[in-house]
Amino acid sequence: MAETENTAKLQLHGKEYDLPVLQPSAGPDVLDIRKLYGQAGVFTYDPGFTSTAACESAITYIDGEEGVLLHRGYPIDQLAAKSHYLEVCYLLLYGELPSATQIEDFETRVTMHTMLHEQMQYFFRGFRRDAHPMAVMVGVVGAMAAFYHDSTDINDPWQREVASIRLIAKMPTIAAWAYKYSVGQPFVYPRNDLDYAANFLHMCRAVPAEPYHVDPILARAMDRIFTLHADHEQNASTSTVRLASSSGANPFACIAAGIACLWGPAHGGANQACLEMLREIGTVDRIPEFIARAKDKSDPFRLMGFGHRVYKNFDPRATVMKESADEVLDLLGVENNPTLQVAKELERQALEDPYFADKKLFPNVDFYSGIILEAMGFPTSMFTPIFALSRTVGWISQWKEQLSDPALKIGRPRQLYTGATQRDYVEVEDR
Ligand code: SDX
Fold this sequence. Notes:
By secondary structure, the chain is mainly α.
């Protein structure tokens, strides 16, 4: 395939086709194949989207080789060190860092939407107590469309704005109440005098019988976990939200679809799967056995919390998360926790093993977030709900960006068909 500066040439079946080459502001050039089927009568094949740009976006950029993650151009390590989650939400939603007045107004708007419609409590009570909180979140977020009719018209910019604020504001309440329901404790209402992360911890930990003081170090670690999970280009759950939204579905249905996709152990469910793996390993002396299994092609076992589709260097979020993990472990004095000891030794052995080094399989964000949440006393079933809470702003930002595209079309991939060609029906007596 020859190429000029802005055009690639495809020679196929004796004909030549010009494919425009689109230049991004960062990252690899992009071959524009939108007219390929119309001109050449062929599809392209890329089932895992390993080489396919499904959309244009200006929100987040990842350089997997360099281990870089930018949100609207700002590096994640600077945002984690100097910003806070709601300011990152503002940045993702509106494209610029807010002024002091803008962030105060934004935080007030979010704070005033943290309560749920009182009748939504009945959705929680319809679940078994041992229901996975991700199942509860999918159900309750999907049900929001039945309560917030004034923010489901996606063609009304004001309703899109209200739905965005409502989802960002209510996800901590929904996640906390899913946890409270699972442990049989009463729901704790949000408090307007607490910041976003402290409010979430208070709703999870407080009981009516006595006051609960949120430790500022834990609140800061929680806020940092939220910030580090906020958005991540076109990952599986974000792509799910975009595809659902392309049909015109209401925002709550689209976010419920994103939550469902995130639940998978290959994606956001990896933090829970990672802790369950660490517990299965149990002791440091069993680590070599599991590393051998992870390298054995005949064994489907993989080291959960390692590897990434895009990062072929260290996940920059994992680097920051590792610092937070050390702070929290020191504060809570759980550096002797056997599960956490296994985690640290597993990380050391895997990073020294040529198999993982050659395949660029480094610990990802889920490896360290699971360690922090375990140390903070969350059950593993709450790990992915916390990821979903954090990622809601990324899903919403990408949803809003897609809806603002005048060229938006419903997503409808084609296929490489390898099934039976046409044949006639055979009566049962003739089969
Ligand atoms: C998240 O997309 C995102 O941005 C996701 C995310 C976000 O913020 O939204 O970053 C969040 O989902 C992080 C990833 C969490 N998942 C896990 O930790 C689960 C364990 N990881 C793997 O399942 C895997 O690494 C994936 C799914 C994350 C990535 O898989 P890819 O890109 O499809 O890579 P692959 O499966 O083709 O693997 C490449 C090779 C294979 O070996 P070969 O066939 O080339 O010989 O690496 C091996 C794999 O067998 N491999 C692993 C491994 N991950 C890949 N071997 C052992 N342990 C692993 N964890």
